[in-house]
Amino acid sequence: MKKKNSPPAVLLYLSKCSTGFLSLLKGMGVTISYFVQPGKIVTQQYPENRDELQMMARFRGHLSMPRDEKGDHGCTACGICEKACPNGSISVLTTKDISGRKILGKYVYRLSQCTLCNLCVESCPYNAISMGRNFELAVYDREQLTFVLNETKGELQ
Amino acid sequence: MYPLQNGIGNLIRSLFPENAMLINSTISIISLLLLVSLLPVFLIWLERKVAARFQARIGPMRVGYHGLLQSTADGLKLIFKEILKPEGADTFVFFLAPILPASATFLVMAILPFDHHLQVADPAGGVIYVIGISGLSILGILLAGWASNNKYSLLGAMRSGAQMISFEISLALVMLLIVMITGTASLREIVLSQQGSVLDWWIFKLPGLGAIAFLMYMISSTAELNRAPFDISEAESELTGGFATEYSGISFAMFFFAEFVNMFVSAGIASTFFLGGFLAPQIGIGVIDMLFLLIPGFIWFFLKTFAVIFLYMWFRWTFPRLRVDQLMYLEWKMLLPANLILLMAAGYFMAMGWVL
Amino acid sequence: MDLHTIQIEPGTNGTIPEGFTRQDPSKVSSEEYFLNMGPQHPSTHGVLRLVLRLDGENVLELVPHLGYIHRGIEKVAESQTYLQNIHLTDRLDYLSSHINNLGYCLAIERAMDIGVPERAEYIRIMVCELQRIQSHLLWWGVSGMDLGAITTFLYGFKERELITDIFEELCGARLTMNFFRPGGSFADVPDTFIPRVKNVIKIMHKALQEYDTLLTGNIIFQERTKGIGILSRENALSYGCTGAVLRASGVHYDVRKDDPYSIYPSFDFDIPTGSNGDCFDRYYLKMEEMAQSLRILEQAVARFPEGVYRSKVKTAYKLPEGSYYSQVETARGLLGTYIVATGKPQPYRVKFRSPSFSNLSVLNELASGHKLADLVTILATLDFVVPDIDR
Q1: Which is higher by pLDDT, B309 or A54?
Q2: What residues of chain C, 248 to 287, have a C-beta less than 8 Å from chain B?
Q3: Number of domains in chain B
Q4: Measured between CB atoms, which of B90, B231, B238 is closest to C376?
Q5: What is the domain-level CATH number for residue C216?
Q6: pLDDT for residue C325
Q7: What's the distance, CA C44 to chain centroid?
Q8: I need a surface site. Which of B15, B244, C187, C377 has the fewest CB within 10 A?
């Protein structure tokens, strides 16, 4: 221990003992306050609380093509989202309808590549696509991660 | 005299007069083994639940009601794991090492007084026996680190060995204090010397010094148990496992269980020395005292032991870890002088008759 | 018993791992050995490999090996448009992803001379300061856990969850935000944003006091951090450290005050500076930074204006030819974004000056001479994020 000019080392040692001990007691007081108050518990039991679980409105879970009451989607196959996507997770395959106009054939969405960056949703001028709220997307087979969005009914299950 | 002075023992003595000693000893040893086997299962569950409540979460909930079967499931899993031996490890020592701490704790458990007549053995030098047997745990850890053929394990074992040997001294000095005051080294006599009211417990009887001695005991025994804030040997964030890095399966489980049973034993000794063991607390109000006396002694022993175990858990989940040299500084430059001064003060108090 | 040590025989170079200085063989003690704190280690805060030269417990020399999480972000950025690169900057230092986005957007705004409306500036300030608090909360929790107080991890995350929920409501993501755009942000704040921020301010004031009681005032913690890993002022400046590491050594530099961006000059806040340059100073400064961020948030909430949230929306951003640079203060230090543009929709080169890289470079200086346990403390207080180092 270094000798100091003032105060003497013994007093320094003893004062450090007492303040140190008090600091330890105060720390113990913080943890015991959490022990005796079950109202402070913040965790939830996950699979059991699925019914009450509500994701926020803007939550970016996966891409989906919502349909209105008549069952129509809003996509016109303009291809803007395909260009906006940074890594090619979207493929818009067009086909021609009876009068020869270009309509949407298949809207291929590869969830395995998607970074959920939201650029496609922002760039769509018709609000045809939006991000869904489902986050339980794990599958056993990688091929199940490629979706054809205009052929699924409503939000992906 | 021992074991089994109670009804069962008398029954057997009447039925088998020649072999009574043998049968009574066998029954008491088997029941103690059962206790030692079931205790870590319960204590591990308790540790996880208490830790969770300190951390504002719930703890195991799924395996059994509120997770009561969780530690059984973990134990079963560990039993089914492959027992690996690292290349170059000394086989005999490698597999001997986990057995030593477990047997040491079982040996000390044998002389704990659970009730007036529930004690497997009561040697006259019980305290000296306890201090001696604790050395076996240290040996087990050192052997484990050496036999693993791994730099990390060796580092962890050396740190742990140095720590445990140092704090044994403080532990022994505190126990010496109690022996000095009570005048006997037998554990049962120490408990019986605290008869009377709650204020006759040694933590209160010596004004001020009893509490300080209890505090010293708590610090020293926490270090003996390799628990936080003295768990440098198991510091996951530094050495990923310490002395038990190379162990898997049942060998690892033995270390783990030995630590928890050791915790129970240390807490049991704390309650024996300072908190009155199996004696019911008599607080002076007639009705409540009668009610307390109705509850059997071993329930009180377990209650007091679990209160001390709660203190151990509270320490673990609040404080950060001490570094090795700070630990040594704490022992040799703070606890040891304090212990010696405490001994002198206690002697002075006794001479002056200030023992309440 | 073979303990896999590398013996250095006098007169030969022995088998010294790469990166270590060639020692004078006559001065080498035969007790030294090399230890590998491998890429997978609980306390290196990511995939970082440290090779240590140890003598018993004392660290003599240290060589970090990087590159385990190199993803080629700067290379990928050359083949994507400017707007698509914003979501790449999220993944640099993922704990300050909003602030990274802001640095990149500032460079684009400077290049194309895009103004930002006042409401958007306030949104930016609030979101960045919330991100700073969130990052510091994670750092605090993990520091406590590295030092042995495991409970701090849970407490830190408990408060952090409030802020993460705000971000989830704001932009839909909890880690990689992609919220800011050149000229503002891609959406306005929801109605519950301001009440939530006020709630966070209230809870954080109480929480900071609790953290002080639990860890800062604790004698064990102070003994473990005071006097450890002292970084001198000259070393801090010459190695290029920024952030709390630099300020703890006595240099009063913060990008928000000295090279201000956005509307930081209109806010009233202090820059805490340390004097010793040890671990405790770095720790204490970050706690103070959280308090100052709360101050900025209170002022911003009080004067939050109405208006538009984004000024110009273009379909394609084509920066004019030239090179553009912007600096922001992330939770770790100074992040510089340097864009070289050639008039095409994609940049020619994007370079990020990451604060964690410079902060890591000083680790050898700090750790030499200390014990292995102190190395963990120093790593915790240097507070780097390995993806920021490797990019």
Answers
A1: B309
A2: none
A3: 2
A4: B238
A5: 1.10.645.10
A6: 93
A7: 14
A8: B15
Please tell me the predicted confidence (pLDDT) of residue B355. Answer: 67
Query: Most A CBs within 10 Å: which of B46, B47, B53, as the mutation test of the A interface?
Result: B53
In a domain, C90, yes or no: yes
ipTM for this model: 0.84
Residues B56 and B126 in one domain: no
Nearest to A115 by CA among A88, A80, A82: A88
Return residues 362-391 of C near B (CB < 8 Å). 371-374, 376
Residues of A in contact with B317 (CB under 8 A): 31
Domain span at B95: 81-352
User: In terms of residue numbers, what domain contains C105?
Assistant: 73-390
Q: Which portions of chain B are predicted below pLDDT 50? A: 1, 237
Task: Tell me the mean pLDDT in the region A125-137.
Answer: 87
Q: B330 vs chain A: nearest CA distance in angstroms?
A: 11
Mutate to test the interface with A, among C213, C223, C313, C317 (most CBs of A within 10 A): C213
CA distance C286 to chain B (A): 19
- Degrees to nearest 5, angle at CA B78 with B74 and B83: 170
DSSP letters, B238-282, are HHTTGGGTT--THHHHHHHHHHHHHHHHHHHHHHHHHS-TTPPP-
Q: How many domains does chain C have?
A: 1
Predicted local confidence at residue B303, as pLDDT: 92
Tell me the average pLDDT of chain C.
86
Domain end (from B59, B75, B91): B75
Q: Are C382 and C245 in contact (CB under 8 A)?
A: yes
- Tell me: do B101 and B63 sit in the same domain: no
CA distance B9 to B21: 9
Which tens digits make up the pLDDT trace of A66-84?
A: 888 887 888 888 889 999 8
- If one counts every other C-beta atom within 10 angstroms of the C-beta of residue A112, the result is 12
The answer as to whether C283 is a domain residue is yes
What pTM was estimated for this model as a whole?
0.88
Domain co-membership, B273 together with B329: yes
Interface touch C218/A60, C-beta < 8 Å = no
Same domain, B44 and B126: no
CA–CA dist C367, A74 (Å, integer): 61
- Among B32, B50, B75, the domain boundary falls at B75
| Below-70 pLDDT ranges, chain C | 1-19, 21-30, 43-44
What integer pLDDT is reported at residue A157 of this predicted model? Answer: 41
Note whether C148 contacts B319, CB cutoff 8 Å: yes
Nearest chain A Cα distance for residue B7, angstroms: 42
The answer on B235 and B259 residing in a single domain is: yes
- Which one of B49, B55, B66, B214 would you mutate to disrupt binding with A, by most A Cβ within 10 Å of its Cβ? B55
Between β-strands C33-37 and A102-110, what pairing exists: parallel, antiparallel or unpaired?
unpaired
Residue A24 with chain C: CB contacts under 8 Å: 218-220
Same domain flag for B1 and B56: yes
- Together in a domain, B66 and B86: no
